[in-house]
TrEMBL record:
This is Carotene isomerase. Signal peptide: none annotated. Keywords: Isomerase. SUPFAM superfamilies: FAD/NAD(P)-binding domain. One of its GO terms (biological process) is carotenoid metabolic process. InterPro entries: CrtISO-like, FAD/NAD-bd_sf. GO terms for molecular function: isomerase activity.
């Protein structure tokens, strides 16, 4: 039995950032998998390194929560700027998402012309820029101070955006881009699916702006894989990987953790497990009940990994938008991330490619092994055929390694079958889980908690959690 102050359960982006910020404390980070990073890890299979999920690093710029955390921790990530953040291809038409507004607009107008394009995209960019200047971003519950800071944030939001806060994304599109073509709408929605897990029909104008504007920021490629950034962050952290926490029991003012290897007593527990998976960790009925309140949000990923032997010069990211939905998925687009040709680890003898799209966990449940494998292969083949259709110089024989992952694979490796939490909408905002809980010393972090997914969303939550933690200690 070991006594510790802080136990962090999970080395995803959230668990890693909070551990790095508190590395000088008596802290242990537990990770079930052998690779660190969860959805942002890098793994090796058949001699090639692949990014498991996340491939784009965004937010490493002055006055941004991510850069601030890295600076505080004293880590400089090994990254390379992607001058073209994403190349979208729809019906062979290309739009490059580049940070330069005029360049982007000229390209956009040549493909999806609308007389109000400038107004629309300028507004999106400005709302996003204004959001990142807010000083009081906070969302926590269960205590006077927490509610007071949250209220101050709401006031700040209102002061900055006023009634614009209540505008819906769909309403704004209809108002500013009337008679928008189906293709153009698909271009917008497929980008929202990547960043916000949903389309304009469910979003506020503010959320849509944050989701669409990320390529106006600097977008980076992580050299050596996304997992390398996590490893760099954790270099001075006490880590127990390949050690899963199996159960937790509250005992007076401590938590007893039983892992696959040992037993620990911790004063504070920070869960980086997805909120929907956290109930099963607890032996206490009241804590179980608390976590059971957060109903499962069935948004999952289907990911294809391939090694490509090709001399073709490729960008870091493409988004291919199709006419119809991909079978067994809930999207008509997929995101292709390619290792940089000079990346000695990932591109050692060919490109390492991660292709991802959205699916649902339920599509992969209740199948026999054969049915599951057949369904997976069918989906994979469909995606590969469309991938080859969009790259004239890449042939099937260039593909040297090919396999894919569903919600079941993600569950097996990192205990989660969803990706992302519930999108923040006017309806969900008050039900969102916060970083603190009604139980003293028990905290949450990660993309199923405020403020959401990806490096920027998780980092906002980490900052709030860090303040809550330090207010208590
Ligand atoms: C296919 C895909 C592509 C994406 N692309 C991008 C992108 O390009 N850029 C971007 O910024 N974001 C991207 N995202 C989103 C981003 O990856 C996630 O939002 C983020 O990585 C989630 O971090 P998290 O802190 O919630 O932790 P998670 O990734 O959920 O990690 C949690 C960790 O906790 C561990 N764990 C859970 N339970 C236990 C336990 N009981 N004991 C020990 N360990 C445990 C798991 O093994 C896991 O490692 C993508 C996501 C997916 C799925």
């Amino acid at each position: 039995m070991k006594n510790i102050d802080i136990a962090v359960i999970g080395s995803g982006i959230g668990g890693s950032l909070i551990s790095a910020l508190n590395k000088n404390k008596d802290l242990i980070l537990f990770e079930k998998d052998k690779n660190l990073g969860g959805c942002a890890s890098t793994f090796k299979r058949l001699g090639t390194y692949f990014n498991a999920g996340a491939t784009t690093f965004v937010g490493y710029e002055n006055n941004h929560p991510i850069k601030n955390i890295f600076d505080e921790v004293g880590v400089v990530p090994n990254i390379l700027e992607s001058k073209i953040a994403i190349r979208t291809i729809q019906n062979r038409k290309i739009v490059d998402r580049v940070a330069n507004f005029e360049e982007f607009l000229t390209n956009l107008n040549s493909v999806y012309y609308h007389k109000n394009n400038r107004v629309f995209w300028k507004t999106i960019k400005e709302i996003d820029e204004r959001f990142w200047t807010l000083k009081k971003v906070y969302f926590a519950k269960y205590g006077f101070q927490a509610y007071a800071k949250t209220a101050l944030f709401v006031v700040e939001l209102f002061k900055e955006f006023g009634f614009m806060l209540f505008k819906t994304a769909e309403g704004y599109i209809n108002e500013v881009l009337p008679n928008i073509s189906k293709e153009y709408k698909a271009f917008i929605n497929s980008q929202l699916l990547i960043t916000l897990q949903t389309t304009s029909k469910d979003l506020s104008l503010l959320a849509m702006s944050l989701g669409l504007a990320y390529p106006f920021h600097k977008v980076f490629y992580p050299i050596g894989g996304m997992g390398q950034i996590i490893e760099d962050l954790l270099k001075d952290v006490n880590i127990q990987n390949k050690e899963e926490v199996i159960s937790i029991k509250k005992e007076q003012n401590r938590y007893r953790l039983i892992s696959t290897k040992d037993e620990y007593l911790a004063s504070k527990v920070i869960l980086n497990s997805a909120i929907f998976e956290s109930s099963k960790l607890f032996l206490d009925e009241n804590i179980k009940k608390y976590y059971d309140k957060f109903s499962f949000s069935d948004q999952s990923a289907f990911v294809v990994y391939l090694k490509l032997d090709s001399k073709e010069k490729l960008l870091h990211h493409y988004q291919i938008i199709l006419k119809e939905d991909i079978p067994n998925c809930i999207s008509n687009s997929f995101f292709v991330s390619v290792s940089d040709i000079n990346d000695e680890k990932l591109s050692r003898d060919g490109y390492s490619i991660t292709i991802s799209t959205h699916s649902k966990a339920i599509f992969w449940e209740g199948l026999t092994k054969n049915e599951y494998e057949a369904k997976k292969e069918f989906t994979q083949n469909f995606i590969i055929t469309e991938f080859l259709n969009n790259f004239d110089n890449i042939k099937k024989e260039n593909i040297k390694t090919l396999f894919s992952a569903t919600s079941k694979t993600f569950y097996r490796y990192i205990n989660r079958s969803n990706c992302g939490g519930k999108p923040i909408t006017a309806k969900t905002i008050f039900q969102l889980p916060s970083c603190n809980t009604p139980f003293d010393g028990l905290y949450n972090v990660g993309d199923t908690i405020f403020a959401g997914q990806g490096w920027p969303g998780v980092a906002i939550g980490v900052n709030v959690l860090n303040k809550e933690l330090n207010a208590k200690s």
